[in-house]
Task: structure prediction
Amino acid sequence: MWLRTSCDMNFDIPEPTPFILMLRMRSGAQQWVASEKFVLSPSVPVFEFTDIYGNLCQRLIAPAGRFLIYTEAEVMTADQVDEEPGAPFVEIDFLPDSALIYMLPSRYCESDRFNQMATEITAGLLPGYDQVKAIETWLCQSIRYEGGGSDIPLSAVEVNRNQQGVCRDFAHLGIALCRSISIPARMVVGYLHGLHPMDLHAWMEAYVGGRWYTFDAAGTDQKGGYVAIGYGRDAADVAIFNQFGPAVYPVSQSITVAQIEESINPNA
Amino acid sequence: MWLRTSCDMNFDIPEPTPFILMLRMRSGAQQWVASEKFVLSPSVPVFEFTDIYGNLCQRLIAPAGRFLIYTEAEVMTADQVDEEPGAPFVEIDFLPDSALIYMLPSRYCESDRFNQMATEITAGLLPGYDQVKAIETWLCQSIRYEGGGSDIPLSAVEVNRNQQGVCRDFAHLGIALCRSISIPARMVVGYLHGLHPMDLHAWMEAYVGGRWYTFDAAGTDQKGGYVAIGYGRDAADVAIFNQFGPAVYPVSQSITVAQIEESINPNA
Amino acid sequence: MWLRTSCDMNFDIPEPTPFILMLRMRSGAQQWVASEKFVLSPSVPVFEFTDIYGNLCQRLIAPAGRFLIYTEAEVMTADQVDEEPGAPFVEIDFLPDSALIYMLPSRYCESDRFNQMATEITAGLLPGYDQVKAIETWLCQSIRYEGGGSDIPLSAVEVNRNQQGVCRDFAHLGIALCRSISIPARMVVGYLHGLHPMDLHAWMEAYVGGRWYTFDAAGTDQKGGYVAIGYGRDAADVAIFNQFGPAVYPVSQSITVAQIEESINPNA
Amino acid sequence: MWLRTSCDMNFDIPEPTPFILMLRMRSGAQQWVASEKFVLSPSVPVFEFTDIYGNLCQRLIAPAGRFLIYTEAEVMTADQVDEEPGAPFVEIDFLPDSALIYMLPSRYCESDRFNQMATEITAGLLPGYDQVKAIETWLCQSIRYEGGGSDIPLSAVEVNRNQQGVCRDFAHLGIALCRSISIPARMVVGYLHGLHPMDLHAWMEAYVGGRWYTFDAAGTDQKGGYVAIGYGRDAADVAIFNQFGPAVYPVSQSITVAQIEESINPNA
Result:
């Protein structure tokens, strides 16, 4: 399906503040970015770099006063994410080098504390895809979705203690469980068509059967319509904006995702 | 100034053909990409990767038949490129690691053959920016601009023998001369506002005084309006499209660059 | 000073087990590796890769049974680490891209929880080196060194609660405090001449005044003699060995660091 | 087999001269570096970085006067390089991103000029390994090995014109021929056991059947005993030493490669 996404964030900046943004999506196996639009108002110099996960990041200094960041994109994405029951566990020695970092514990995914729990959840299952699916199912059934959480991310240990959370929390706990049984897992932040209420979304991918598969336990019935913006180990890596100095949150934020007709060449 | 660029290429593909494209510009110190649009017709799966120079590249298989690639962008770029007479030569031991590759000879820039010539052209000058400026001036005065060259790039040695060439040829010879006196130099391919006749353009950057400066000897009087698409050692690295198998050239290609008003947030 | 280091680890491996090792030091501004020696017994195929932090890592499958890893190196390192009281805080917008990742919270350094505490510890001080020095001093005075801790690393929050720890714990808390006031900080694992009892050591580096400086609060009076093996965000990234599957610890481990005469060319 | 290699280079440096060295081998699928030793005399500060091909490079300033670089290594390498007649050509769209750069023409491998010649040499053969083997055989039969060539590398076009060359020349022509028929090919510099007269050696690898295979047309009957130091597109990328400023060649250079018993842990 073709989607048009937009993200509109307004800030009141008390003093000039450095930001690191993650505004530009990448085209890949699972999505094709046909158009992008960025507005910064007021306009400021931007320096772009590629972070260690391959995300395109933008550095800038937000000036004092009202600061607006607006992005819009037209993206083709799968109607339904790939599923592959039975896809096997990849032995560590056959994992690509680039997947290894997604095996390690990270700030919000203390995978070193979850081996026993993950072993119980996946008992008796074929190693690989089926284990991750069981973790996803367990999360759906055991963790209550509770919107409007804190601005500060919770870690997998905290989420497991609370037994409730938002999409980010489901992803953190799912990732920690996967890694604890040696399945590489990473966090994705982006858009999801049909999400209600509409907002930025977070989910996870796990590496089984020789590729990354999408999993999302956060109480949604969507089969597809995912648009990835950034990839990382957990929420610490994939903030849409990272800002330094006194905390600054958007005074307003508006996200839209709408299905559209295919983008057409005006000259064709 | 704000520019809208477009590139429209039509191919007649005899058999399915792998392409590597360089469609997506980067935002950086010298330009800000406010919007991008890509159309591939027919639509095909695209895989994006970052090459060793930091360019965003797209891999795809063009299907047999008519294949169209259209890109459009709105970009803010400098009215006038920075100049810094007197900017000093950077001693090799203070060059950043990332600049070192631009010191080596490459396919079309046989810098190992030009030391004597470059030494003569820059005799008596302050090492650094002034040397590069002298090379640019020498190219303007000595090499005749002659449009409509071959599809196959010539190397600096060949250009120097011919004493004529197109923008790409000027850049290759200029780069070879700079590198031969230990000044890192790289090729840039992109758009130039006001170019006549309008086409894709190529120019060079040299690393002096601790940063990259733009130089362009190709017979144009433009002071600014440059939009970079890709960076590399020479034309072998920065093809807008690389295609494998039987050679396929666009049956038609149209480039436009127009000055526009600043891109505005529709919601602002 | 010239040092000869060695690390001898013996494992009893119950079943073939994938390892990721960090055996090879890098030569850099602060150390020169004049020789290296590696023994794996029994000998097995090894694949080397460079991780996202620049460390050289080795992948292998340890066979069942007794498995021995021995490394030895001769290294020139500073008698005294550089100190630079007054070195200024680097504004975020002037940090190199590569330092940004060391600003984010990580598995064992929950820097998002320490801003108030770090602000108190560094109150009234010149931003930069002097703040880090104050954090180091505070750690020395407030956290009790207590050898023989757990095999599982504790996080900065846990270390701060316990008010005691080993070298790794001091580093984690120090790193979290630095990052919480926007000073990039990273973990280093390696050797330290004169450490008693001798073991692998961990310390931290902070980025102030335009470069990385060494800090080590772990109760030692050493002024220099540091040999770095690996760099990372915290202990999750810089394990000398990471092993997957059922936990396997060395049945014996022996570390030596001895001062030697300069390595001499046998042919000179 | 286990080999001990050494390289001893003496320079008379007229004025302080920046060098970029490639001293440290990597362990990989085809070799295991059990020990390394480096001597620089006089001792100078060294900064190590990883270049875009993954080679470990060292930067230093050689002081005026006699300067000696000595390296020694103990390496396990294959008695016989892998051969795989029939290994298929890899379609461009299935090549790993990292192989693509080895498809492009480079300074000494003008692959854009050799398509017709390569097509004739490989006429009627199964695409892939067999084509590369035919190119290797053609080189052996058509190009005369002639030691003691110039210090300045020749390009494939020049080698083909001369119909003679040294190992480096054979590799350049072979690489150009492979790339011209869309087979990724790269240059390797290193040691070869049994080479006569002993010297540094250069050969090529081609990517067929999903991996890199070794080919060496340079008139040697060796089946194995290769020790790779560096990889690159051609000789411009894999100089054991690159030096800037007035050309400086070793006043003496001595290479040894000797078969040894397996390296043993002194403590085992």
Notes: The interface with chain A takes residues 18, 20, 49, 51-52, 59, 61, 91-93, 97, 100-101, 103-107, 109-110, 112, 152, 182, 236-237, 242, 244-245 of chain C (CB under 8 Å). The longest strand of chain C covers residues 65-77. The two ends of chain C are 21 Å apart (CA to CA). Residues 129-142 of chain C form the longest helix (14 residues).
